[in-house]
Each structure stands twice: as structure tokens, then as C-alpha cells.
């Protein structure tokens, strides 16, 4: 299947990418090796060439599976991964944030081995480190770009002030924040900053952790390892599942008019918002993969978009998008209700400023 291309600045990618979090954790236990490799390769065979992972997914398991699955097609794909957490390479224990320049270099060397490649196409800082100036982080990645080990740099869950500071040091290719039909946080400052500066935007959880597919109904039984249940995501209590049904109803109404599914409308909505937006839905289910890819046949007109926005303006989203502990790790200006205007973001200023 031919999937249209989009540009994250100078990096050409398929308009839909494939997020590789789910194969390592998320909504249940990790996919076994054979299944993980199968779904990644099926995504490639179906036309997707943009794959997103991170060292912390597993940890390491997602990168390992991406590396093995895509090694036969390495020259034909774009691989994005993320650093930002200190992880014991032996025990795989997470030890907190660490974006010290020396540690970034160590991380990248390990990433290259896991990904079975000599370069990373797009390297993100996974979360803004409150202890390291973003200029130091950006400078470290810029050095790796000069050495040919990294091609492009991006930020994840960053607010506008941090984006501007990093972009001034070295041009950013993409920002990856959560964004979907029911999570509008980037619209108040991050998307405008990306559009102004000419930076691509890659929404994670574009299907609202599965809720926007319409497949999660009252009484849904979550696996004990499903982080929506185990980490107590506020929008996945039984109360929230019931209260947020009107949001799914909006998508279902448009889906019925388009001969599509709610998931396809949710993804098509993102694609229609801006030409520099590239969603990265992930799955371990082959049927869901084909459903997601079918989004390319769903075209939303300006009138369709207005209808969706009018309907959304009349409903209220019940529950925060992430638990408080996770929200605390986000940069200033990332979440609705915060603004980085007049601040320098979450990372400290360099000592010489």
C-alpha cells in the first residue's frame, strides 16, 4: 500500500508512522520476540517506513526488536529513538533522569548496537531534564550529528520556552508530545511554536491509549500489567470510561458518514490539522495495524473538521490525561493549565547566561 510522505523539516517520512512502545509494555505483557518482529515487519510491508522507539521501552526490548526486525531494510526506513533516563545496562533498572552530555554519548553507543545500525535518523530527548541546561543537551546531540551517529534532533513533552532555547542552539526536526482528539494540550503553545519555527510535530498516543477506537466500553477488563489500570490513568476508571463516551460518539458519527472507523477518523483528524503532523499509532494486533493504515483512505474536508470541532466544544473531557506523578515530569507549558511564557522552561539556564 502506498502511504503519502510528509516532511519533518528535511526528514521525509510516511504520513503515518509506527510506534513501538506496545511491543515492550503498555497494555499488557511484552509481545514475544516472534510476534514483535512480525508486527514491525508487517508495518513495513504495508508501506510504513517511519518507526518510533525508545531505550526505556522495556527497557531496551523495543529497541532490540526494532533493530532485528528492520535490519534487512535499514536503508529504506527511518528510525527514531529517545534518551533521557539512566538505566542500568545489566539489571535494566530505571534510576531517574539523566541527560548529562557524557551519558548521552554512552547511551547512543548502546542504542546503535541494539538497533543494529551505524546511525540514528531522529534522536529525541525523552523528557526535559531539570538538572541539565537544554543548551548542553542540544550541544551534545549536535556533536553526534557532526560525527554522523545521529541525523536529526527532537524533543519530547517539551514546552515552547524549551523548544525555542534548543532550536536556537541547533535546529530541531520534531517535537513529540501527546496529542489526540481528546488531548488538546499542544494547541495552546507547542503547536504554534512548531509552526512558527518550522518544526515537525509527532503526536504520541494519537488514539488516546485506545479509548478513541470505541473498543473500550464500561466493564472493560484490563490486564494486570496494563499501565492504564496498574498506573491508574484517570481517564480509564469505570466512571471516566462512561463519562467520556460522548467523545467517542462524535468520532463514530463521522465514521458512519465516511464509511470508516472511529480510530481512522481520530487519525485522519490529526493528519488534517497540519501538514507537518505525523501520528505514530502502535499496536501488536495485525487487524488493528491494517485498520490504522486504512486511515490514508479517509479524507476529512474543512467542513468535516468544523463539524468535529463544534461537537467537541460541546462536551467535557473527564479526567486528566496522565497520573500526577507522570505529569510532574513534563516540561512547563506542555499541559493545559500551564504556560512557559515568561519562563525559561524546566531545564536550568547555562552558567554563562
List the helices and strands and how they pair.
Layout: E1 5-8, E2 11-14, E3 18-19, H1 33-45, E4 50-52, H2 61-70, E5 78-83, E6 85-87, E7 94-97, H3 101-114, E8 120-125, H4 134-146, E9 150-156, H5 160-169, E10 174-176, H6 190-197, E11 200-201, H7 227-230, H8 238-243, H9 245-258, H10 262-273, H11 286-293, H12 302-313, H13 324-327
Parallel strand pairs: 3-4, 4-5, 5-8, 8-9, 9-10, 10-11
Antiparallel strand pairs: 1-2, 6-7
Provide keyphrases for this structure.
two-stranded antiparallel ribbon, seven-stranded parallel β-sheet, TIM Barrel, alpha/beta, 11 strands, 13 helices, 353 residues
CATH class descriptor name: Alpha Beta
Number of strands: 11
Total number of helical segments? 13
Integer-rounded radius of gyration: 19 Å
CATH superfamily: NADP-dependent oxidoreductase domain
**What is the third-level CATH name, the topology?**
TIM Barrel
Report what the structure shows:
The chain has a 7-stranded parallel beta sheet, with helices on one face. The chain has a two-stranded antiparallel ribbon with strand order 1-2. It has one domain (5-327): NADP-dependent oxidoreductase domain (TIM Barrel, Alpha-Beta Barrel). It has 353 residues and is of the alpha/beta class. Helix 1 crosses helix 2 (61-70), helix 5 (160-169) packs parallel to helix 6 (190-197) and helix 9 (245-258) packs antiparallel against helix 12. The chain has helices at 33-45, 61-70, 101-114, 134-146, 160-169, 190-197, 227-230, 238-243, 245-258, 262-273, 286-293, 302-313, 324-327, and strands at 5-8, 11-14, 18-19, 50-52, 78-83, 85-87, 94-97, 120-125, 150-156, 174-176, 200-201.
Amino acid at each position: 500500500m502506498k502511504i503519502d510522505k510528509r516532511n519533518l523539516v528535511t526528514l521525509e517520512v510516511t504520513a503515518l508512522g509506527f510506534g513501538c512502545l506496545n511491543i515492550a509494555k503498555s497494555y499488557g505483557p511484552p509481545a514475544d520476540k516472534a510476534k514483535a518482529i512480525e508486527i514491525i515487519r508487517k508495518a513495513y510491508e504495508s508501506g510504513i517506513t517511519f518507526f518510533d522507539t525508545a531505550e526505556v521501552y522495556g527497557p531496551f526490548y523495543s529497541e532490540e526488536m526494532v533493530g532485528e526486525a528492520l535490519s534487512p531494510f535499514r536503508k529504506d526506513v527511518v528510525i527514531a529513538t529517545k534518551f533521557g533516563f539512566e538505566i542500568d545496562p545489566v539489571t535494566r533498572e530505571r534510576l531517574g533522569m539523566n541527560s548529562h552530555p557524557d551519558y548521552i554519548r554512552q547511551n547512543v553507543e548502546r542504542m546503535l548496537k541494539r538497533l543494529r545500525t551505524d546511525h540514528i535518523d531522529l534522536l529525541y530527548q525523552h523528557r526535559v531534564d531539570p538538572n541539565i541546561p537544554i543548551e548542553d543537551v542540544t550541544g551534545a546531540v549536535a556533536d553526534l550529528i557532526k560525527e554522523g551517529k545521529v541525523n536529526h534532533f527532537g524533543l519530547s513533552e517539551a514546552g515552547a520556552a524549551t523548544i525555542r532555547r534548543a532550536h536556537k542552539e541547533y535546529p530541531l526536526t520534531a517535537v513529540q508530545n501527546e496529542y489526540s482528539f481528546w488531548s488538546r494540550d499542544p494547541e495552546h503553545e507547542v503547536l504554534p511554536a512548531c509552526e512558527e519555527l518550522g518544526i515537525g510535530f509527532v503526536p504520541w498516543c494519537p488514539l488516546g491509549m485506545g479509548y478513541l477506537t470505541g473498543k473500550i466500553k464500561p466493564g472493560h477488563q484490563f490486564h494486570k500489567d496494563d499501565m492504564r489500570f496498574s498506573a491508574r490513568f484517570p481517564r480509564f476508571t469505570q466512571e471516566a470510561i462512561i463519562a467520556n463516551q460522548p467523545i467517542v460518539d462524535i468520532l463514530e458519527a463521522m465514521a458512519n458518514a465516511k464509511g470508516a472507523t472511529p480510530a481512522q477518523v481520530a487519525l485522519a483528524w490529526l493528519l488534517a490539522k497540519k501538514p507537518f503532523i505525523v501520528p505514530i499509532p502502535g499496536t501488536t494486533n495485525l487487524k488493528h495495524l491494517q485498520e490504522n493504515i486504512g486511515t490514508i483512505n479517509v479524507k476529512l474536508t474543512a467542513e468535516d473538521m468544523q463539524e468535529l470541532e463544534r461537537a467537541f466544544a460541546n462536551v467535557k473531557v473527564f479526567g486528566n490525561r496522565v497520573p500526577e506523578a507522570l505529569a510532574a515530569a513534563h516540561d512547563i507549558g506542555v499541559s493545559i493549565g500551564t504556560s512557559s511564557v515568561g519562563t525559561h522552561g524546566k531545564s536550568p539556564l547555562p552558567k554563562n547566561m
